[in-house]
UniProtKB/TrEMBL annotation:
Organism: Lysinibacillus pakistanensis
Cross-referenced Pfam families: UPF0167
Protein name: CbrC family protein
Family statement drawn from the similarity comment of this UniProt entry: Belongs to the UPF0167 family.
Superkingdom of the organism of origin: Bacteria
Length: 277
């Protein structure tokens, strides 16, 4: 293992953000760089850790079994964790490279008050060129989550949603309901979140949560693993009907019990909401 690879690995691991497409792409690129370097035991172990960060558990398991030392307590613990993911493949999904990276889109994304990470949160997509049903312009960033209206809209561009043009054209709203909003007295906040903020995709209808005296910012889709990765399993306000123990056992991103992570714009506290299929 070269000194460069080791130093770069420490830097990559420190800055890795599983919610950031650019960070995911960068980790995949570093993975390929390590694979091309001399395959010492040190490099193999770094590759195992990279595979784990990218949730590529079969690859991590296969590689780790070539270097593990079962007399070593840490290796036995690592093996047990990888074996668990091999036996439970639906616990989380691999983090694949994004087709279009942050900053490479041509479509201008307006600043959404309640959606600080339009692409990273996976509410907007950037995978192909589509025609916005509202303005009829071709765009490479689009929303396909639908709108609560009689007429169906397949694709909507960020600008039409942000300006309110889409809600006016379809005479609809992007949220089904608002939770804990009794302390939100500013009607402009409600108008913005209902008619000018795209909704997240959920099992039982997207319900936007409020905290303090405003609505929260949507951060992204999460399971218990994502909360662990963020280090906030004991730092969120629980707007679900389940205890933290129950959440740790059943909350799975892209699973039957889906979590939705918000953050209060006033106090900064994370807020967790969830629903079942």
């Amino acid at each position: 293992m070269t000194t460069f690879i080791l130093e770069e690995w420490h830097e990559q691991r420190k800055n890795f953000n599983p919610s950031d497409p650019a960070s995911i792409n960068q980790m995949h690129e570093f993975k390929e760089q390590v694979k091309l370097d001399e395959q010492t035991e040190g490099n193999v172990r770094i590759l195992v850790e990279i595979y784990c960060l990218l949730r590529m558990y079969p690859e991590a398991y296969k590689l780790f079994t070539t270097v593990m030392d079962l007399e070593n307590k840490k290796d036995r613990k690592k093996y047990g964790a990888l074996k668990y993911y091999m036996d439970n493949p639906n616990y989380s999904r691999p983090l694949y490279p994004c087709k279009i990276r942050e900053g490479e889109t041509k479509t201008v994304i307006p600043k959404f008050k309640y959606l600080p990470y339009p692409l990273q949160s996976k509410i907007f997509k950037a995978q192909k060129i589509v025609t916005c049903d509202c303005c009829k312009e071709e765009v490479d960033v689009y929303y396909s989550g639908g709108i609560y209206a009689i007429e169906r809209a397949e694709y909507l561009c960020p600008t039409c949603i942000h300006s309110g043009a889409a809600a006016r054209k379809y005479d609809g709203s992007f949220q089904e309901d608002l939770i804990n909003d009794e302390n939100v007295v500013n009607a402009n906040y409600t108008e913005e979140v209902m008619y000018r903020t795209p909704g997240y995709v959920s099992w039982q209808g997207n319900n936007w949560v409020a905290h303090c005296s405003d609505y929260c910012a949507f951060i992204g889709y999460v399971g218990w693993r994502e909360l662990l990765e963020r280090g906030i399993t004991e730092q969120f306000e629980n707007f679900t009907a389940f205890s933290t123990i129950e959440l740790s056992e059943s909350l799975v991103n892209d699973g039957h019990h889906q979590g939705y992570l918000f953050q209060c714009l006033e106090c900064g506290h994370y807020v967790l909401y969830s629903d079942f299929s």
